[in-house]
Amino acid sequence: MTPTTTHELRAELRRLLSEGQDSAVVDLLEGLHSADVAEIAQELEIPEVLAMLQLLPAERWTDILVYFDDELQSEILENFTGKEIAEVVLENIDSDDAADLMADLSEEKKREVLQNIEDVEYAKDLADLLTHAEGTAGALMATEMVQVNENWTVSRCVREMRRQAEEVEVVHAVYVVDDHDILLGSLSLKKLLTTGARTPIADVYDRSVRSVTSTTDEVEVARIMKKYDLFVVPVVDDMGRLLGRITIDDIVDVIQDEADSNYQLMSGLSDEVEAGDGLFEMTRARLPWLMVGLVGGILTSTVVGRNEGELALLPQLAFFMPLIGAMGGNVGVQSSAIVVQGLANSNMPGTLWSRLSRELGVGLLNGLLCALAILAYSWAVGHGLLFAVAVGVSLLSVIIFASLFGTAVPWALNHYGIDPALATGPFITTTNDILGLSIYFAIANALLG
Amino acid sequence: MTPTTTHELRAELRRLLSEGQDSAVVDLLEGLHSADVAEIAQELEIPEVLAMLQLLPAERWTDILVYFDDELQSEILENFTGKEIAEVVLENIDSDDAADLMADLSEEKKREVLQNIEDVEYAKDLADLLTHAEGTAGALMATEMVQVNENWTVSRCVREMRRQAEEVEVVHAVYVVDDHDILLGSLSLKKLLTTGARTPIADVYDRSVRSVTSTTDEVEVARIMKKYDLFVVPVVDDMGRLLGRITIDDIVDVIQDEADSNYQLMSGLSDEVEAGDGLFEMTRARLPWLMVGLVGGILTSTVVGRNEGELALLPQLAFFMPLIGAMGGNVGVQSSAIVVQGLANSNMPGTLWSRLSRELGVGLLNGLLCALAILAYSWAVGHGLLFAVAVGVSLLSVIIFASLFGTAVPWALNHYGIDPALATGPFITTTNDILGLSIYFAIANALLG
User: Given 3-state DSSP classes, what are the helix, strand and coil percentages for chain B, each rounded to the nearest 5?
Assistant: First the structure.
């Protein structure tokens, strides 16, 4: 039986490695894409991964290395000297991947690698790339690209492209610069294919190229590329000089990471947690928010405790405590999520006040409908009209309050430079529990006390 | 003062349109990208949008139309005859955008459009595109691409590319097919630039091209393109014949939509809701889940009601009700979110049973820590040891239960072809509230009753 699933392939690979069947390992990996090999290797032990990589030609195993996650990459690279990394690993990959690989190395190792790169220009490029702060366009870009001078002709341009293409794996775009490397525009391959050889580049290039600066936040780069449907965007410095380019495949990762991070904050998971993680990683990712919930629960218990007397007189009050808390939590999360998504998509029209007044409307409408429903129910099951009114009015108040609170909190967090998605998780639910129950008891006190 | 923000530009545009200053409108829009114009137009009234589009050349306003959201696109297209759509709109856009635009038209209008397309081959292509089910690779692909025959030479290939490039806006990839249009591989521009003119294509093309079939789910296409870092992927039919290609910019939208949809389900929002939506759209998106929460709350109230006697004897039991409910909800959402994300990223190692046993471990560990904390707290504030133990044991049980339940529910939904993300919203919180409180009262009954 030929192994086909990742799981089967991993078991087979493990067996072959342990038995030292080197040529069978090579045969097994032969037909697989590097991304698939990386997926298989991701769950192996480090010595197994090293043994596997050693059997493959340098070009192949560096290609596989690029698909490993950051953690595995560092663990593997620890086993190589700076000289080996410079001469074997970096020879075979693009500068953005190279910078990514190197970012997690120690400062000492980084220096060692850079000193061992033969091509001094490339070493400089790489050193430059490493200076850009994580999460900026500079950290995301690669320096491999085809650039031509505005004063060239189409035929010189094609000759130069042929030369540069030796180094550049895929031609995403051709950028036109002046003598000072200032980005002027771009040239489509279509134009290049359909224009006479003697035509000056200056006559045919497109001047409307959209660029980002190296300090632009990666989320903003993603927004721009999505909005304008760009495949590749050039990166310039503050002077307008062309530094590199970012391709949309890197942006896909940014979008996915951003979405994952918002999702995890909402679900009360901290850090990057994956389904495959072990018991302790899992606990570490989950416990902090549970502790927040626990502290919130304790505070709630004191709110209830302070109203013990009322509860003793009217035990039915306890019946609707969970409902009030849950509805407040639900409404709060809804409101917060709308703000967080609006901010993430830069689609947040109006001011905080116009936003709050709209939420007030939504809260009133939803609140009235829910309040009438619960009033009717509790009256119908025989709780008495005044009690039913108290529950209904409480629910209405809690829904309106949660709408406003859920809107204002992420807005305020964002205003002070804190991730607004923090406001969608257990934090908002817990706070709404506490404040919701306080409102409930206050209204019950006023109406029934 | 020159208007610069979208908001200012919209106000200015509105003023100029109402005053009939046509040339000023054209000047205002001149320097703007079509995506920016679309963003401005998105909040205008339909007659305003129509008036604006009429002032622009056909090429320009069709480009703007492509950036509108589906709803606005249909509303605008309703004002055109099938003939106008065929002759003006479709002339200027790619086939995938054309199929998108047409998808929302009535069947009658679709037929009218197709009958008015002069190029019969293109009409056939478009009719084919319209047959693909939404959410499949076929519905996402465009038919514009450069394809060459394996028997050609490099020079014939370049000649053909020049000819085809007249129709194809951007050359993403060159596909190699045999005489029956069966996809054989791809040809990189680099190879084309660096190979002698007489070389046969068969000698230089890359045979390892990865393709998808037209019925492949779009989420699977996204996964494949992300995993293998593809910019463009060819789409074939079941015979392997080349039908079209999907570029990564379309996949970016798929990824974003999928993430947004999971996010909205978790936050208890139905439908697509945006920060800019009006009061009634907002209410419609939010009320359904609130009703789920309300019904859940009513069920919870009956659980509490059935334990009225116990509550009367031990009023402190009420103090910790919100805590038990909230913690169950938090843990349940954490567990579900991990499963949903794992399924979305196709990163879900192991079987349901191995998953559940791991969750049991996480639940035990988290549960014990939280239970000890609450036991210590409630004992310290003087609730009595037995009561403190009852609260602690309840919390432990609820956390373990919620971990397992939160894992099993999305798994089961997915197994039966239902979106597992449904399990992360108010549904899981509400159910955990009900079951959590039942567990709480049962344990309290057993230990304290």
Answer: 65, 10, 25
Q: Is B118 exposed, middle or buried (0-12, 13-18, 19+ CB in 10 A)?
A: exposed
pLDDT band for A394, please (50, 70, 90 cuts): very high
- Interface contact B433-A334, CB threshold 8 A: no
Q: Are B138 and B233 in contact (CB under 8 A)?
A: no
Contact A387, A378 (CB under 8 A): yes
Give the DSSP per-residue string, B145-199: -EEEETTSBHHHHHHHHHHHHTT-SS---EEEE-TT-BEEEEE-HHHHHHS-TTS
DSSP for residue A91: G
Residue with tokens 């949809």: B261
A329 with B327: Cβ contact below 8 A: no
CA angle (B369 as vertex; B368, B371 as ends), nearest 5: 60
Q: Could you tell me what percent of chain A has a pLDDT over 70?
A: 96
Q: Phi and psi at residue B61, in whole multiples of 5°?
A: -75, -25
Closest Cβ opposite residue B312 in set A227, A315, A339: A315
Q: Residue A151: what are its φ and ψ, rounded to 5°?
A: -85, -5
CATH of A6-140, one of 3.90.1580.10, 3.30.70.360, 1.10.760.10, 1.25.60.10: 1.25.60.10
Structural contact between residues B10 and A202, judged by C-beta atoms closer than 8 angstroms: no
CA distance A323 to A329: 10
Does domain B279-448 match CATH 1.10.357.20?
yes
pLDDT in tens, B242-269: 999 998 888 888 888 888 888 888 888 8
Would you kindly state where each structural domain of chain B is located, as residue ranges?
A: 6-135, 146-247, 279-448
Nearest to A327 among B256, B290, B316 (CB): B290
- Closest to A263 in 3D by CA, of B277, B287, B265, B220: B265
Work out the number of other CB atoms within 10 angstroms of the CB of residue B166.
9
pLDDT > 60? residue B270: yes
Q: Which residue of B has its CA nearest to A159?
A: B193
Domain A146-257 in the same topology as domain A6-140 = no
- CB B154 within 8 Å of CB B198: yes
The fold adopted by the segment(s) B6-135 is: MgtE N-terminal fold (1.25.60)
Of A162, A260, A286, the CB nearest to B366: A286
What is the predicted ipTM?
A: 0.78
Give the 3-state secondary structure of residue B282.
Answer: helix
pLDDT value at A266 more than 60:
yes
Pick the CATH number of B146-247 from 2.120.10.30, 3.10.580.10, 3.40.630.30, 2.70.70.10: 3.10.580.10
* CA separation for the pair B440, B310 (Å, rounded): 12
Interface test with B, best of A10, A40, A338 (most B CBs within 10 A): A338
Interface A–B counts its CB contacts (< 8 A) at 338
Q: How far apart are the C-alpha atoms of A405 and A356, rounded to whole Å?
A: 9
The β-bridge partners of B212 are: B235
- Of B430, B449, B112, B126, nearest in space to B291 by CA: B430
Fold of the domain built from segment(s) A146-257: CBS-domain (3.10.580)
Look at residue A366 in the predicted model and tell me its pLDDT: 92
Q: Say whether A85 sits in a helix, a strand or coil.
A: helix
Mean pLDDT across B208-219: 91
Contact criterion met (CB < 8 Å) for B227 and A35:
yes
- Provide the Cα torsion A167, A169, A173, A178; round to 10°: -10
